[in-house]
Amino acid sequence: MRTCDAQSLRLLYWDGSKLLDQVLKKALPIAESLYPGYQFLFLFDNATSHSVYADDALRVPKMNKGEGGAQAILRDGWYRNGDTVISQQMFDLSEDPVTGTTNKIPKGIEKVLKERGLWPVEGLKLECPKPRCSDCSEMQNCKNCTKGTRCEGCKRPKVHSSKCTPRRSCDNCESRKQNCRCVQKQLCARCDTKRKEGCEGCESLPQKCTSESLSAFADHPLYFC
Predict the structure, then answer these.
(1) Rounded to a whole number, what is the largest CA-CA distance in the chain?
(2) What is the rounded distance in angstroms from the CA atom of residue 88 to the CA atom of residue 115?
(3) What is the Cα gyration radius of the chain?
(4) What does residue 124 show for φ and ψ, rounded to 5 degrees?
(5) Please, what's the b/e burial string for 132-143 (b: 16 or more CB within 10 A of its CB; e: otherwise)?
(6) If we measure between CA atoms, which residue out of 116, 104, 113, 114 comes closest to residue 75?
(7) What is the pLDDT along the chain (225 residues), one digit of tens a residue?
(8) The whole model's pTM is what?
(9) In the beta sheet, which residues pair with residue 106?
(10) Residue 35: Cβ within 10 Å count
(11) CA 118 to CA 112: how far, in whole Å?
(12) SS3 59
């Protein structure tokens, strides 16, 4: 039986980028050849697979709470201060002390809102925590479970002495494993049973609110400019 990895699966599904590619490279050239001098309007149904955004589109679901990370560098936004329209750059510039190159560091939601004077003193969470029943809420601070901790050696960034492979790690990584003093998390019998069997009380509560569940509202032009 042939197996597919994640990359292969993405290639199999028809999505918005493939739709846009077909329109620009096939449908539009054919239409312009048949009807020169005309303008064209292509209409598509509202399938989620047809949703296409520019890489630098101002979309909150694509942002992190903090700065940097894997989030995209978005185009400049704007906001109003009274009757004044203020342009807001969506990244900061940082100089690498080693190479001297200047890098763009994307701003997170927190900094964007602070610059607009909208960040509350008590702060905000990126997503609401999952609702839990009173019994499970108490178990979050269970004294019988062993909390996992990372040792100081494993907190340091990895420095490879040579190339690591799936079969053999480099000498530095091997030394890191041997000197590891991390403590693995261990659940008590009660918490372990709850984790495996679930909790009917928690399952009856509403689902947590996430950035994805609010994506339709988050894409509204008045929500983020």
Answers:
(1) 76
(2) 8
(3) 25
(4) -140, 150
(5) beeebeebeeee
(6) 104
(7) 445 555 555 556 778 888 888 999 999 999 999 999 999 998 888 777 777 788 899 988 889 999 988 888 999 999 998 899 999 999 999 887 778 889 899 999 999 999 999 999 988 888 777 788 888 887 878 888 888 888 888 888 888 888 888 888 888 888 888 999 898 888 888 888 888 888 877 777 777 665 555 444 444 433 444
(8) 0.52
(9) 91
(10) 10
(11) 9
(12) coil
Return the half-sphere exposure (C-beta side, CA atoms, 13 A cut-off) of residue 67: 14
C-alpha span between 3 and 12 (Å, rounded): 13
Let me know: does 88 contact 71? Beta carbons within 8 Å: no
What the block records as the tokens of 68 is 């940097």
Question: Which ranges constitute the DSSP H helices of 23-133?
Answer: 28-34, 109-115
**Tokens standing for 66?**
């903090």
Q: Which tokens belong to 84?
A: 């004044």
> Rounded to an integer, what is the distance from CA 116 to the centroid of its chain?
23
Q: What is the amino acid identity at position 181?
A: R
